[in-house]
């Protein structure tokens, strides 16, 4: 019985030795190229080069000395989900590296091949990287195995760059440089919005389409008091759009808004100047003092008292053919009182700093603005009557 067991063990050892003459001992991707146990891909859209190591050992011939150790290693990327034997023919498999090892590569019983170069192609992230190991044993049988070590793919999350704001992108209503009125404005948007007439009129939005690099753009309406979009539409980047607000149920004239235009990928944008929605006549503080002129339907005074340290005026800049305007102060009977500006840009807002007593502030002091085109003096208009006095 013992003799039979001994013979059986001898046969098993011989069989094992014949099948395992050459063994893939190790397969490792360099630690610097890994995120945990996965190959780290910094940019999924580019190839990812990396280095790896394999070590192989060879057995001893029955007659003494080492077997040749001839073998082939093949490095694969594959998304194969079935048997390993299907990897070479799987349509998702890519051969990344091949190396034929011969007896001359060995140092005694082992060969260690370090710093082998391979590269994972772009846009590969759902598979694994492994080694196919192949040799012909001493019975002339081709032996194939696959490494138990397998590396997944880790794609480094990308943080998109902050969108770039393009100053001057929106040409109407443009962000206005208010330094000319010598009045500081602490808010992030202009304190003096232009007026847009509702509901009959639309806003003819205009921008420089050459400054955005996509054929379509997003146009978004915001209130200056909120970061939540009121409405957002996608349109052709042609430089103009007639924006109809009539269906949006927006607030009264004292609510201010602006428009953001951004390219379709969201990495470039610009903002309009602020605006508010007005009727032709804001409610006068006292109905007993109507405008002395019937064409006072596009120039407004914001306050009927001396709450400010100066005088403000707003108007529909599109109602007058002018690049610059003259701003005059008249009394409630239409008599000229004082020129406030010989020339100021036709932006729809003006501020006059009053540090003297030339313009009386009393409970009986009533005034009107007259705005005249600098280039076309025959075009002008008068504001509503307002009372300027100390509260």
Description:
It is a single chain. This protein is mainly beta. It has three domains: about 1-155, Sandwich (Immunoglobulin-like); about 165-280, Sandwich (Immunoglobulin-like); about 300-385, Immunoglobulin-like (Sandwich), CATH 2.60.40. Helices cover about 5% and strands about 40% of the residues. It is built from one helix and 28 strands. The protein has one helix at about 1-20; strands at about 20-30, 35, 40, 50-60, 70-80, 95-100, 110-120, 130-135, 140-145, 150-155, 165, 170, 195, 205, 215-225, 230-235, 240-245, 255-265, 270, 275-280, 300, 310-315, 325-330, 335-345, 350-355, 365-375, 380, 385. The strands form seven sheets. Strands 11, 13, 15, 16, 18, 19 and 20 form a seven-stranded mixed sheet that branches.
Return Rg in Å: 41 Å
Return the string of H and E elements.
HEEEEEEEEEEEEEEEEEEEEEEEEEEEE
Straight-line distance between termini: 121 Å
Overall pLDDT score? 81
Can you tell me the number of structural domains?
A: 3
- Please state the second-level CATH architecture of the largest domain: Sandwich
Beta percentage is 35-45%
Which fold does the CATH topology of the largest domain refer to? Immunoglobulin-like
Q: What is the C-level CATH assignment of the largest domain?
A: Mainly Beta
Backbone shape: rod-shaped
Low-pLDDT stretches? 5-18, 178-189, 280-296
Q: Can you give the helix content as a percent range?
A: under 10%
Number of strands: 28
The structure class reads mainly beta
Core attributes:
7-stranded mixed β-sheet; Immunoglobulin-like; 391 residues; mainly beta; 28 strands; 5% helix
């Amino acid at each position: 019985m013992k003799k039979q067991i001994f013979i059986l063990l001898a046969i098993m050892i011989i069989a094992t030795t014949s099948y395992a003459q050459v063994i893939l001992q190790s397969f490792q991707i360099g630690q610097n190229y890994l995120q945990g146990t996965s190959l780290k891909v910094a940019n999924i859209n580019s190839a990812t080069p990396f280095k790896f190591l394999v070590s192989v050992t060879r057995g001893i011939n029955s007659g003494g000395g080492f077997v040749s150790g001839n073998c082939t290693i093949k490095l694969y990327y594959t998304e194969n989900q079935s048997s390993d034997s299907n990897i070479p023919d799987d349509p998702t498999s890519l051969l990344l590296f091949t190396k034929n090892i011969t007896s001359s590569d060995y140092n005694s019983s082992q060969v260690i091949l370090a710093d082998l170069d391979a590269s994972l192609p772009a846009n590969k992230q759902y598979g694994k990287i492994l080694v196919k190991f192949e040799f012909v044993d001493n019975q002339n049988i081709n032996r194939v195995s696959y490494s138990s070590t397998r590396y997944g793919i880790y794609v480094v999350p990308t943080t998109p760059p902050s969108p770039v704001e393009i100053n001057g992108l929106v040409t109407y209503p443009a962000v206005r440089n208010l330094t000319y009125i010598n009045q500081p404005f602490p808010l992030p948007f202009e304190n003096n919005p232009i007026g847009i007439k509702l509901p009959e009129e639309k806003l003819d939005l205009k921008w420089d389409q050459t400054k955005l690099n996509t054929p379509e753009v997003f146009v978004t309406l915001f209130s200056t008091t909120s970061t939540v979009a009121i409405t957002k539409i996608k349109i052709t980047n042609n430089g103009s759009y007639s924006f109809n607000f009539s269906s949006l149920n927006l607030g009264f004239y004292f609510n201010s808004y602006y428009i953001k235009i951004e390219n379709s990928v969201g990495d470039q944008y610009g903002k309009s100047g602020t605006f508010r929605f007005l009727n032709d006549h804001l409610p006068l503080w006292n109905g007993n003092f109507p405008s002395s002129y019937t064409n006072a339907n596009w120039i407004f005074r914001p306050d009927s008292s001396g709450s400010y340290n100066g005088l403000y005026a707003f108007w529909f800049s599109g109602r007058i053919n002018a690049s610059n305007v003259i701003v005059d102060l008249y009394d409630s009977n239409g008599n000229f009182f004082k020129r406030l500006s010989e020339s100021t840009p036709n932006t729809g807002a003006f501020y006059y700093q009053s540090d003297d007593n030339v313009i009386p502030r009393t409970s009986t002091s009533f005034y009107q603005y007259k705005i005249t085109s600098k280039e076309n003096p025959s075009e002008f208009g008068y504001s509503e009557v307002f009372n300027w006095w100390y509260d």
